[in-house]
Amino acid sequence: MRDGDPMARLLHYLELPPVWLALFAGLAWLQASVFPLAFLGRAGDVAGGLALVFGLALSGWAALRVVLAGTSLIPRERPDRLVVEGPYRLSRNPIYLADAAILLGLILIWDAVPSLILVPVFLKLIEWRFILREEALIRDAFGSEYDAYCARVRRWI
């Protein structure tokens, strides 16, 4: 497909982490619908709710730090600033970590225990599809400053 092709543009914008999160959540929901389990009960609802709230709060906090720094939230765009404040002091990828917490929370709420395997698969896919490319862009933009940050802060937690 050519760059000016509307379908190519649509796919370019659909190839974003929230779309992958929705796809994985949809798989977990489908598993819970087709093979329902009454395993976790109220404990799953509570744990899932806490994970969901944590993920949403972390995502909002991290996104706010990026916006306040005046740089882009879009994974394939070269950042204007290196964000190291707020949740970025603890994780180089707090938004993706938040996405994993949201997925975990939904899986627990839906009692989709077999779908728990989707959480590490989701993290690996996000690393492969987005993080490695983002790290190269950031390293290219900030060089030794980014290398020093990587030495201080782990990719996940």
UniProtKB/TrEMBL annotation:
Coiled coil: none
First-listed, main subcellular location of the protein, grouped into a coarse class: membrane
Gene3D superfamilies: 1.20.120.1630
GO biological process: methylation
Record's keyword terms, sorted: Membrane, Methyltransferase, Transferase, Transmembrane, Transmembrane helix
One GO MF term attached to the UniProt entry: methyltransferase activity
Recorded topology in the membrane: Multi-pass membrane protein
Entry keyword Transferase: yes
Pfam families reported for this sequence: PEMT
Transmembrane segments: 20-40, 52-75, 95-123
Compartments, as annotated in UniProt: Endomembrane system
Classification via InterPro entries: Phopholipid_MeTrfase (IPR007318)
Domain of life per record: Bacteria
GO CC field: endomembrane system
PANTHER family in UniProt: PROTEIN-S ISOPRENYLCYSTEINE O-METHYLTRANSFERASE, SLR1182 PROTEIN
Protein name stated in the entry: Isoprenylcysteine carboxylmethyltransferase family protein
Record organism: Rhodovulum visakhapatnamense
